[in-house]
Amino acid sequence: MTEMKNDQIRQGVRDNYKKVALKNIDTNSCCTPSCCTPDENQNISVKEISQKMGYTTEELTSIPNGANMGLGCGNPQAIAVLKEGETVVDLGSGGGFDCFLAAPKVGSNGKVIGVDMTPEMISKARKNAEKPQFNHVEFRLGEIENLPVADQSVDVIMSNCVINLSPNKLRVFEEAYRVLKDGGRLAISDVILTTTLPIDMKQNMELYSGCIAGASPIEELTSYLQEAGFKNIQITPKDESKEFIKEWAPEHRVEEYIVSAIIQAEK
């Protein structure tokens, strides 16, 4: 892809998330967005979507109203094994959902930083964070390819169905490596490609911003992680995720091409 194409992709994704951020989403209502694509025809609630991704009822009731917008493809919290005092960065933090779940795990001596390139998402997350228990949570406007985070300052990097949206995934992992401390780790949930996408689907901007057309196969992601410098790389497909992925764009039968996976690696 040319740089112009890359910028077109970023703008398309940003426009999509702006619409989601400005949408007033009721956690218990139907007709809500799933993953990255607002779909007015779904008869499923945000809460139901999140439970399918592995979040517990306790987790879903512990966060500010509006933080959970049903955007994601898994639960990075389940693999992050966060510890008291750690600093965590969430790539593509949206309304702050995973950041708010990470906050009590790292405690007041820890820090949670959400990074998102959509101003409307940052505003929404900051409003959600206006509670005393989230004083150690902050949200920064920026691209995940150019993180507004200092070198070697982070213990854990999380992300939930966002890296697939980047047109420069190698750069994302290079930036992750830069900001992680020695021994730091990745705890990522994302979609991976299981077979070749038809050209018309690959060039469909709606499917790109819907976490489908930008997915990469395991071999490609592994190569990016290795080139960035990571070790102990593990990418684990979750076949059960097809149960909610098939609802993203039913007319394209996307569950035949992508699946959610857990991506782990260490610096």
Automatic annotation (TrEMBL):
InterPro entries: Arsenite_MeTrfase-like, Methyltranfer_dom, SAM-dependent_MTases_sf. It catalyses: arsenic triglutathione + 2 [thioredoxin]-dithiol + 2 S-adenosyl-L-methionine + H2O = dimethylarsinous acid + 2 [thioredoxin]-disulfide + 3 glutathione + 2 S-adenosyl-L-homocysteine + 2 H(+); arsenic triglutathione + 3 [thioredoxin]-dithiol + 3 S-adenosyl-L-methionine = trimethylarsine + 3 [thioredoxin]-disulfide + 3 glutathione + 3 S-adenosyl-L-homocysteine + 3 H(+); arsenic triglutathione + [thioredoxin]-dithiol + S-adenosyl-L-methionine + 2 H2O = methylarsonous acid + [thioredoxin]-disulfide + 3 glutathione + S-adenosyl-L-homocysteine + H(+). Pfam families: Methyltransf_31. GO terms for molecular function: arsenite methyltransferase activity. SUPFAM superfamilies: S-adenosyl-L-methionine-dependent methyltransferases. GO terms for biological process: methylation. PANTHER family: ARSENITE METHYLTRANSFERASE (PTHR43675:SF8). This is Arsenite methyltransferase. It comes from Viridibacillus arvi. The lineage of its organism: Bacteria, Bacillati, Bacillota, Bacilli, Bacillales. The gene is arsM.
